[in-house]
Amino acid sequence: MQGVMEKEIMPATDGTGQAPAAHIGAHPEAADFPLREARKLVKDLWQPNARLYWTDFTTSNVLGWGAVAVATLAPFGSLIQIAALVVATLALYRAVIFIHELAHFRKGTFVGFRRFWNATCGMPMMVPAYTYADVHIDHHKPQVYGTEEDGEYLPFAVDEPWKIIAFVVQAFLVPILLVIRYAVLMPLTLISKRFRDYVWERASSLVIDYAYLRPAPKKSQGKDWLLEDVLTGLYAYTAFALVYFDILPLAFLGVWYTVTFAIFVLNGLRTLAAHAYRNGGRERMTQQEEFLDSVDVPGNRYITPLWAPVGLRFHATHHLFPGMPYHQLEKAHERLKAELPDNRLYLAATRKNLWAAVAQLWREAKAAKRA
Q: Cα-Cα-Cα-Cα dihedral of 313, 142, 165, 361, to 10°?
């Protein structure tokens, strides 16, 4: 694979120019991407730093739940409560997003970290680790990415523009649906295996395509999924019981709902900026096409991680190297940008900021509708 291309590559910019064609043919240059050279440049960036994982997550989690406590006890509508809600949202959002790293850990590694994350963050937020693990790994498989089997993909760029708005607005219902899932449906799954299988298939995955049908658990997974379901439900019952007996203020439930809603809004915007979503035909893609259908938003190294935490501002680079630890992605991005013999195709997946990425998606959807 040649590192220097003969023809000029026109990157997908964040300007106001004509939107690129909204189909997989929009990336005929993908075969020219210097994947072999890129892999050589980052071959030393694959070792996860366990101490950093524990420190980063624990700090974010403690700060987030501490801010939840302050927001719960502060006078309603006060500046202290508003500030605490903002801190709680950003800190717990970062803590929750470690579920993405959990999905990529090799089997049998970081077992203690996964359990700690589940007990202190995933289950209290009603998003146990299993709801994302296999679903996300499928998202990275060449035979699945962008197809109808990919629960993390919808062809926004070639669909009705209003669906982009609806996708963000639906975050209002997510906290309610999570409580129903674990406080109402979970006990019923203990009574009926048939109903449990149905719930696991249709209501146990963190996805954006609600038509997604999750494959049944492997023989070794069923007990773990059920255990995570039960424990998550117990967190919900415990919270309601503590409020009922006046041990926790009623305001706690309102704060939890507000923070969870805000987290899903932020994550919804980040998700819209994570890919170009041009695969309207839902065809299979090569890894190079998958990269060019994904988006990097390096942005400001201090501001951008607030809405794209734990390395997700380098989402296109992550799709090139799915197993790379989050703390190495910025280094990989800078190295590829500086050292690839021809970096034009690599930079074609870069957007200036969140607004530029979402605005381009909106323009392409409007152009597709006119066409």
A: 70
Return d(Cα 103, Cα 226) in angstroms, integer.
18
Q: In the predicted model, what is the mean pLDDT of residues 145-172? A: 96
Instruction: Decide: helix, strand or coil at residue 275.
Output: strand
Query: What single-letter amino acid sits at 352?
Result: K
**Paired tokens of 31:** 């075969």
Tell me if residue 325 falls in helix, strand or coil. coil
Inter-axis angle of helices 251-272 and 79-104, nearest 10? 50
Q: Do 173 and 179 meet the contact criterion of CB atoms below 8 Å apart? A: no
Q: What is the DSSP-derived secondary structure letter of residue 282? A: -
Distances from the Cα of 246 to the Cαs of 205, 250, 252, in angstroms?
Answer: 33, 8, 11
CA dihedral 235, 240, 241, 244 (to 10 degrees): 160
Best CA proximity match to 5, nearest among 356, 345, 287 = 345
Structure tokens, 267: 């994550």
Best CA proximity match to 250, nearest among 238, 242, 258: 242
Burial tier of 175 (Cβ tally within 10 Å: 0-12, 13-18, 19+): buried
Residue type, 3: G
Per residue in 29-74, pLDDT (tens digit) is: 677 888 899 999 999 999 999 999 999 999 999 999 999 999 999 9
Number of C-beta neighbours around residue 333 at 10 A: 22
- pTM above threshold 0.85: yes
pLDDT digits (tens, 9 = 90+) for 266-288: 999 999 999 999 999 889 998 89
Torsion on CA atoms 87, 266, 121, 47, rounded to nearest 10: -100
Residue 300 Cα to chain centre, angstroms? 19
